[in-house]
């Protein structure tokens, strides 16, 4: 019996060894018929991400703008001393006239030929030339401009113009994908992509009225006045400025929102200029030190730093040191917000200012005036 058990054990060991060798060297011998391997799990199909349709819709409406003007340049370097500098400039023959050129971008906003761009693109230009994406060119005339918001409207006379679609109803959000189209460095029409980095940027010292969209889509010199569009090809902003230490894009660009640009554009087309409300006061933000000095429990509102003697506020009895808390019942938070509350008010409309004067609350009615146009020297 023991002998039989040893024989059985040896036989099983030999069979297992043979099976191991065959499974290692020729595993196909173990299958009498081929069996298809189970399919590997497939990743869920995703649509290819492309913004070609949006670019194709917007590109025909984005134009390149070339301007030229005559400037006087000194024939020799000017001294650094301000008095000597001024004296040298008054000498006859010290300077000569030179023609300079500038470039930028613009957006066709109407099939009738209106083009929206930045004011600084066409400022003081003697001639303005517009080049379309299809190769056509035309001389443009200036319809009107608004230096306070850095916007201008041009007019060209060409047939079959493609106008861009404004995105005035769509609420732009931080994180939205946007595309910037323009003519950076004069290399030709170019599209860059990024996202909306922030909204409501102000206090940048670029314009008087600032409410910028910030984006990291590459914006470079020559992009000014070009289109910032969403992924459907609608205009969400007019590219205006960049933050840069070397003149190139650092991923911080600013665009005027389309809704604000549309309102200003309509006024310029209708009247040639923009009319804004004005009270004839200089507001100042309430700092923590001012809040303590006036025993304020909050830092909302603005303090009146100066009052124009014959301005609307001066005639109504507004005084220096008054603290404006509300305008027509709407809370005044800071200087920028206050100016933006006043700007859209129509002239001769009466508004109510809620003030704090000497610890007492007052309500004073003021008739809105027209903001004077400030001309650059």
TrEMBL record:
Kindly list the biological process annotations in GO that this record carries.
proteolysis
Keywords, A to Z, come to:
Hydrolase, Protease
Q: Which Pfam families match?
A: PDZ_2, Trypsin_2
Q: Which SUPFAM superfamilies match?
A: PDZ domain-like, Trypsin-like serine proteases
A GO MF label: serine-type endopeptidase activity
Domain PDZ stretches = 268-332
Q: Which PROSITE patterns would you find in this protein's record?
A: PDZ
Tell me the InterPro entries matching this sequence.
Answer: Chloro_Bact_Ser_Proteases, PDZ, PDZ_sf, Peptidase_S1_PA, Peptidase_S1C
Protein name (Swiss-Prot/TrEMBL): Serine protease DegQ
């Amino acid at each position: 019996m023991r002998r039989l058990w040893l024989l059985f054990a040896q036989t099983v060991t030999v069979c297992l060894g043979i099976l191991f060798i065959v499974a290692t060297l020729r595993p196909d011998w173990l299958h009498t018929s081929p069996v298809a391997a189970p399919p590997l799990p497939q990743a869920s199909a995703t649509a290819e991400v492309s913004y070609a349709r949006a670019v194709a819709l917007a590109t025909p409406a984005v134009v390149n703008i070339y301007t030229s003007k005559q400037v006087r340049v000194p024939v020799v370097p000017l001294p650094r001393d301000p008095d000597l500098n001024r004296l040298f400039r008054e000498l006859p023959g010290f300077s000569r006239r030179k023609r300079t050129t500038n470039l930028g971008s613009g957006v066709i906003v109407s099939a009738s030929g209106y083009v929206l761009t930045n004011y600084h693109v066409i400022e003081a230009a003697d001639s303005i030339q517009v080049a379309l994406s299809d190769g056509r060119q035309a001389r443009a005339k200036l319809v009107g401009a608004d230096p306070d918001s850095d916007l201008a409207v041009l007019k060209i006379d060409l047939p079959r113009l493609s106008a861009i679609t404004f995105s005035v109803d769509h609420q732009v959000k931080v994180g939205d994908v946007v595309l910037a189209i323009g003519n950076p460095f004069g290399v030709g029409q170019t599209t860059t992509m990024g996202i909306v980095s922030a909204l409501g940027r102000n206090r940048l010292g670029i314009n008087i009225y600032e409410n910028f969209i910030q984006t990291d889509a590459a914006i470079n010199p020559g992009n000014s006045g070009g289109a910032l569009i969403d992924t459907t090809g609608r205009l969400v902003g007019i590219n205006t400025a960049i933050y840069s230490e070397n003149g190139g894009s650092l991923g911080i660009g600013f665009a005027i929102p389309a809704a604000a640009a549309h309102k200003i554009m309509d006024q310029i087309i209708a009247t040639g200029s923009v009319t804004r409300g004005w009270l004839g006061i200089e507001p100042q933000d309430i700092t923590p030190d001012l809040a303590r000095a006036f025993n304020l429990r909050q830092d909302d509102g603005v303090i009146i730093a100066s009052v124009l003697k014959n301005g609307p506020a001066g005639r109504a009895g507004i005084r220096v040191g008054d603290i404006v808390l509300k305008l027509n019942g709407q809370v005044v938070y800071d200087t920028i917000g206050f100016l933006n509350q006043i700007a859209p008010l129509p002239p001769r409309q009466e508004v109510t200012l809620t003030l704090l004067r000497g610890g007492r609350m007052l309500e004073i009615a003021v008739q809105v005036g027209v903001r004077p146009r400030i001309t650059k020297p």
